[in-house]
TrEMBL record, chains A, B, C, D:
<protein>
    <submittedName>
        <fullName>Acetoacetate decarboxylase</fullName>
    </submittedName>
</protein>
<dbReference type="InterPro" id="IPR023375">
    <property type="entry name" value="ADC_dom_sf"/>
</dbReference>
<dbReference type="Pfam" id="PF06314">
    <property type="entry name" value="ADC"/>
</dbReference>
<dbReference type="GO" id="GO:0016829">
    <property type="term" value="F:lyase activity"/>
</dbReference>
<dbReference type="InterPro" id="IPR010451">
    <property type="entry name" value="Acetoacetate_decarboxylase"/>
</dbReference>
Length: 262, 262, 262, 262
């Protein structure tokens, strides 16, 4: 039976996602801020603990992606290639090293959900929008001083977050919170009633390839809204660190198990 | 850390799905037909094999569901409760017993995708529509002789299947293909490049509770269409067995492992 | 050139909507309440004025429809037949008679938008959900004492309204606000810069045929939320009059001009 | 009462669209081809007739837009700003002059539908996708030699058209079919049963402002698919003229009436 992911069949052609490597081109709008470190600790199961420096730092990142597999055929049928996402990253410590960790994430395509199950991103469906730069400014900002970008996130027909970023100056990178290898749990609950997890592991992964355009820094405003099925608003915005915009190209090609947990 | 599914947090409130039991009320439109048994065998990984009797029988089932957890709060925020699906079921043999097996399935909500990952249903996102009965016939059929229902399935902006069912008479049940306990694989690929599966098991599950209204049988027409990312159309409709309509209430509350595979 | 609505072609087959009559089967969940009559007057252009009795009465109505034209072919391709809507109705006076008037409405299909342009309903796109009754109560209420239904409305990725209705007893009808013939404006702005309306008329229409099941009355809770592009929340809920649930079948087949305005 | 479009209120804030001028920044992917001129004539009501030269020329254009009004506030809430569309343009003659005419168009937002009603574009809802260029080529083409772009159109859960364009060289413009002022009908059927149109006029409009980047020409493949509610596939692709890609900025600010028809 062939197929990287389900459904597995004699040909493998129906698999929801093909084997890595996976390729991405897109734009990232990042807002970094500080919240109560206790709220970050609420999201770090053992064996993870708070990062030693600036433990309450959070990054809320919007990404507008085009993606494909090695065959690139998705690019010619772009309903299978384009997707948007918003995700929340914190940092944590594991065996003396600092990792990044995605604690919440929303996407708008099923292939992106499936990649997340493989990579340990806790993906839900949402509706994400971010202003696009364009060479002609009739209805678009440029990536440069004064360029203003909005970004919104909704799920379950409720708006969860909205940001406005006005670019000011070039800078060295688009933030420090999402700059480490990721430490993610991959978990499958047991099939029996009340059973413990059938499988659980802590894995690490990062980009197998990366190119980035100039990063821009600016002034950011971020508002989070309550929802009965989300906990994002508990990560209150106590102090904005900064906002960033950057165009990137990324390759992802697997990770490694840090620790088997179940 | 709490939460049946991801994301797991200190409170568990953001979990994409709560713990079973899960409750369902809905309408099922089923078309059963025969295809080449070799095409069914293409979908049965070891240790499963073809069912001994009528091995090429297939059921394509549309379902219009309302669902909830024990707390029932989803019912008051029905964007979290209602979903539609279409799924393809075949039968198979395992250790001398006959099981049903869902080989393809499309749903339209993320909580339904997540339940599928737990239960071993290979869920993708799709767009499903089925005619609804209603007490007033201005724009609706009734569940009774001559009642005509349409059903369609699309994914990736392509129509994959369409059926028309005209009810003729009451019958004993809504088909025999989806009438056994399910035998499903639950698989998580290894995180390393080219790694074997990190976890794989064959599980069985069925309804923990079931109520069904009168089943109706009728004449069905079913057309399947090609898509570069689907293999549904390979299960060619060689002979229609019958079409069925039934309203049901179901409880699902876990299953059991038949065999650990990896 | 043929076609009731655009696009008009030699065959008329591509017309977004066919000629009336139009047929509807569906469920209505209504919450009636009182707001400041001055806010209702804000929505009544000349020659309309406030209704003499209970001028601040408002109905917010959710409807879950299946609809078709005389040929009924939409019922077999239900993506063309089913739609949901939420709409706000007030009453007004015109030449000594009382009319109902839809002041805001959201739907989720283009054919419903087009019908609204013809009928003078100011339709926008939205996301509406309402709990469905079902014969099996695993995840559904019944239409009867204690049956509890939720309903929500969102547009632009913001939740605009949410209601909960618990049925208590049968009653004579599902409210009085939406019980008169409709008085609607049909307006097309002039194509020139700053031009006055190219066309404007006040029309009246109502059902050409109606069947209704038993109406149920109950206790309703209604919350309205702000949005920068909506004015619904200005119609503050000062006092809930009642909540209603009813299944209906309707035929619509044109109206008449009350007054040509431009 | 204020508001350019419905609903009109005391403040005008809820109007589905604000007054022109409207501003657009976006990317256009165009495929021009020849069909049987008789099929074009089927789409030209009196007083329009076939263009004298190359009367069977057709342009199928995909556009990925960001748009706003003079206040530009939509750009910070991009769910109100971004939309996609695909539209079919032919040429026609009126009183000795050649005009372009949009005969079919699909968009994915309600504000775009409303603008179309004002401008005489026969807009339906659809699902459109077109490959995006990006500075980093991991999963994106560049606008340059060899850059390959796909584009698809679906409506009613059926795929209607798909194109693949491979750029070869710069050229003077992105086609000749959509290069004239538009000649559109604006029509409102009468509200009475079987009544003639209450309003009909032939209008002309074009861009009030335009900027365009370099145009690129290339090899295009275009396939059209049947649908029971569309007539696009009757405009058979007899001969591809060429494919084009261009980034543009546009301002629209009203038009003028050519002839009042009803």
């Amino acid at each position: 039976m062939k197929g990287f992911f389900y459904p597995r069949t004699a040909t493998g052609e129906a698999s929801l996602i093909p084997s890595p490597p996976w390729y991405y081109s897109g734009d990232l709008l990042t807002v970094e801020y500080r919240t109560d470190p206790a709220r970050v600790a609420d999201l770090l199961p053992a064996p993870l603990s708070l990062a030693p420096d600036d433990p309450g730092a959070v990054a809320l990142i919007w990404a507008d992606w085009q993606s494909c597999s090695s065959g690139r055929e998705e690019l010619l049928d772009p309903v299978r290639s384009q997707y948007k996402e918003a995700f929340v990253v914190v940092r944590c410590a594991y065996r003396g090293e600092v990792f990044s960790r995605c604690v919440y994430i929303w996407v708008d395509k099923d292939f992106a959900v499936a990649r997340g199950i493989h990579q340990g991103y806790p993906k839900k469906l949402g509706s994400m929008w971010q202003t696009r730069p364009h060479p002609f400014g009739q209805a678009a900002p440029q990536i440069g001083p004064g360029g203003t970008f909005g970004a919104t996130l909704a799920a379950g027909d409720r708006r969860l977050a909205e940001a406005v970023l006005t670019l000011r100056e070039p800078c060295d990178g688009n933030g420090f919170v999402n700059a480490h290898p990721m430490a993610h749990h991959r978990v499958l609950p047991g099939i029996g009633r009340g059973a413990p997890d059938a499988f659980a592991e802590l894995i690490s992964s990062g980009a197998a390839g990366f190119e980035g355009g100039p990063a821009w820094r600016g002034d950011a405003d971020l508002r989070l809204h309550e929802s009965p099925t989300e906990e994002l608003a508990r990560l209150t915005v106590d102090e904005v660190i900064g906002g960033y915009y950057r165009q990137v190209g990324v390759v992802w090609n697997g990770g490694s198990t840090l620790e088997r947990l179940a």
